[in-house]
Fold these 4 entries.
Entry 1:
Amino acid sequence: MTDIIHTPPPVPPAAAETSDTALMPGIRTVGTSAPFRWLAAGLEDMRATRLRASFYGLMFMLMGFAIAAIYETRWQLTMGLTAGFFLIGPFVFCGIYWLSRQRERGEQPDLTGSLSCWKGNPASIGFFAAILTFLMVVWARVSVVIFALFSTRDFPTMQGVIAQIFSMSNMPFVIAWFGVGFVFASIAFAISVVSVPLMLDRKTDTMIALFTSVRVLWQNPVPLYLWAALIVALIGISLLLSFVPLLLTAPLVGHATWHAYRDLVAGRG
């Protein structure tokens, strides 16, 4: 009797280029100049959409004012308000991504429609927002513990916190605070590089989006940490200048993040 050997069919080259697995999107490698290209594309989106995304920048600016005002008067409520900020953040940025997506597809940018674009995948985006909020709350609690252990100034006035953070006379606190902050910020950045644009564009579930985002960072560490530094610089300067620049910097980061997603994740939604 002759043995019959079954040979599995070869994987089409296109499929191998597009995805590492049946579910996970493929990842592209980019150069160190990519973040500047994303910012330039974001600026072009802002111009082409006639600054419609500044509406979302206004929301971030007002939230910043609210957090600062409540901290000065009733600091106990600050954590809850900040958690709410992180909770609605992905939904707010969805609108900016949507405007870039519409422009990319040759559609008329629609601010009204962008307000509810997250409804296309509410469960996944909402779960991601909850994960970010939980991470933020843990980060805030750890920061309070570190401050209590190393503090040499009064707490919890805003001036006391800022003075403690930037005081070179208390280096153990500075090292511990920035070290722990870097760990939490790295985790948050790793899971959110392309997560929300991916969930919005392709309606993927939360875990696929998170794993894809981590893979993106793993494959492109240098350009993406440069991208993170640029984001910190833009948003940090906005905070130092009393939140007002968020009218422009938040939309810029949002539009640019859409182009980062397009550059880094293979295939199209």
Entry 2:
Amino acid sequence: MRNYRHIEVRPVAGALGAELAGVDMARTLDDEVVGEVRQALLDHLVIFLRDQRATPQQQVAFARRFGEPIEYPQLKGLPEAPLITAVVKLEHERNNFGGIWHSDTTYLAEPPMGSMLLAREVPPYGGDTMFANQYLAYEALSDGLKATLDGLVGVSSSAKAEVTKTREDRMKSAGAALKVLTAEHPLVRTHPETGRKALYTSEAHTLQIKGWTEKESLPLLKFLWEHQTRAEFTCRFRWEPGSLAFWDNRCAMHNPINDYHGFRRVMHRITLAGDRPR
């Protein structure tokens, strides 16, 4: 277990995830604290802060200490903070935004390194988010399958039916037109900071394997999608107002659970720029 001098880090599961104490995102943080928060992210893949009272502007300032915030490609941000996207499910809506296992926006040529989600309104129960460690998912594969995956490239699309359905309500309320975006990335990527290999595909975005037909691709991809989210690779986070989750999209997937029909859930998300997966 790593020793932290300025913050307290409490793991929430064996696979990934840790709650941090001693961090107030509404205040200007010392460089030493920022460094330890970033190290905790690299160690645990997703970190959680409780009881945060930050304004949107303070949330953006906090995010800038860890990377470059970028606009979400499908929806406009808040009027007072364009770099923050409101992730909302209203009482009458049935679909939740992004309600499928995925890593964010892999259909971009340079997908985000991380995402920060701050809970503003949460249902009285339900609406948890699950996370999955893609280092462990890759390391659990046989040597033969690892060799098969070496060099294979996945074609990601923003227009797969499974994920576009989760955006329908927000796109309609925003009056936004759906832009179809595609990108190609290795099915196994090497994390640029840790040097570890991680699976990098999802049912939400991966359309097929480059050079293969969709029909040829599906058996292998379906195996990977089921394998990636085995229970022993996951943790589950229960939200409260003021909770923040900050996850590393380069090695972790997430899935917001859609089990709170009839209740409102309002979250503020910031996405941090990344690099081209290799």
Entry 3:
Amino acid sequence: MTGRLAGRVALISGAASGMGASHARAFVAEGASVVIGDVAVDAGKRLADELGERAAYVPLDVTRSGDWEAAVAATLDLFGKLDVLVNNAGVLDGGSLGSYTEQQWQRVLAINLTGPFLGLTAARAALIAARPAAVVNISSAAGMQGVAGMHAYTASKFGLRGFTKSAALELAPHGVRVNSVHPGGIATPMIGALPGTVTIDRAENTLTRLGEPEEVTPLVVYLASEESSYCTGGEYVVDGGMTAGSITG
């Protein structure tokens, strides 16, 4: 343990699996205490048990403000403060215009965009009290460029990128930094892939493969730590070159 996050307390949404679980493991390894917020009760509890006394699970539906308020309260009760909020929970689906439904649109925006808004709303006072504090919003490469057929997902991730900037400007005087991370295709259950599938051909990026969650996590650790004390309102891409442009044609 190098202790880059020693003494810090983090609340991570969607932390029971995928990138969120990778972030939680790294945070604990770097000395932080972590609250794992997720709707997946069994997986969340198993991860908390795995990580030991500096980890705890709380049920968290990110579309419910009451769940967020309870998660923040539980974090304060368990660990005494809240230094870092990682808005990681997200969903992905798609469909062509004309067949993609309003219900699908509203669900994706509720989780991917309204969720982080509710989370930061609930955590604002605790983060200010713990200053210097940090918020890391997990957006996407789809928050930097359009993706055909992924209308709600693209809109939500562009929206989260913008919300990151407005929140960063507002909270800077209060000692809270807010940044966004923009992963490309990462091998997680959300896209139907599992760790170990990084050799899948991906013509959409220059490295022609999916990334691993552990290739995103070091950037999240950096933005959560005081190593990034001069970084706020920024967008940090980890996408295998996907947004650099096409490698064909």
Entry 4:
Amino acid sequence: MTTPDVQGLQQLERAVLDDGTSLATALRQCPMLAGYAQHAELRAWALKELEGYAPTDELPSYRKVPATLEVTVELNLPGQIIQGNSRRISPHQLPQHARDRGIGESAPIRQGVREIEAVVTQGDRAIRLSPPGSAEYALQMTQEQHRLGNEAADITSLH
């Protein structure tokens, strides 16, 4: 007779090896297995992976992904407006307090696996993540451009 924990491990193994099974589906089995094994740390990890990490939670290193910074610039030229011109920027071009908060070329992924899978299945479009405070930083960067004499440039987003 097979015990529930062994059955759970066999189910998890089948799910992991099945290309048609989503990661969220396979991961949902982990809290149950952790309960059988009385492994509170595994259960807590699996629940965070499924539901997402709170802003106060320490993120595992694999949830801090490399990401380039970009701004979207709107140019208000005489007789025309050019919208949606995106370009990469250096972290050194961010306002100082954005750099002080650790905003740079790394994106923390706090969403749960189910939410991540939903975004990924929406197609081949680029995924743009905006750091907290990005609207304020875009405004400050626009003000800096205007102060430098580039009145035609408005930074409309930071991602």
